[in-house]
Amino acid sequence: MISKKPECPNASLKTATLSAMEPRKKGKIPHPDTKNNGILQKLISMGSLPGMPVTLLRRPPSSLFEVDQTRYTVDREIANHIYVSY
Fold this sequence. Notes:
- This protein is an alpha+beta fold.
- Helix content is about 15%, strand content about 35%.
- The chain is built from two helices and seven strands; from the N terminus they run βββαβββαβ.
- It has a four-stranded antiparallel beta sheet. A three-stranded antiparallel beta sheet has the order 1-2-7, with no helix packed on it.
- A hairpin with a 3-residue loop joins strand 4 and strand 5.
């Protein structure tokens, strides 16, 4: 999923889920998007917090990404809840 939000001051930035990004893209996490407490806790424990820089290293079926010099691998279900603006 890729979107542009015109009401945002940075409307020129694209926002996509981690699973929709291209490898080697860098961006920042604007917000988590889940009401599932289990997934939200997992995102928080990985440091996937608003404002954190993220780099996608490998695409699905399992996404490998880096946050704050630490690498994580997640399945598509979790990658679909991590949004990145770039």
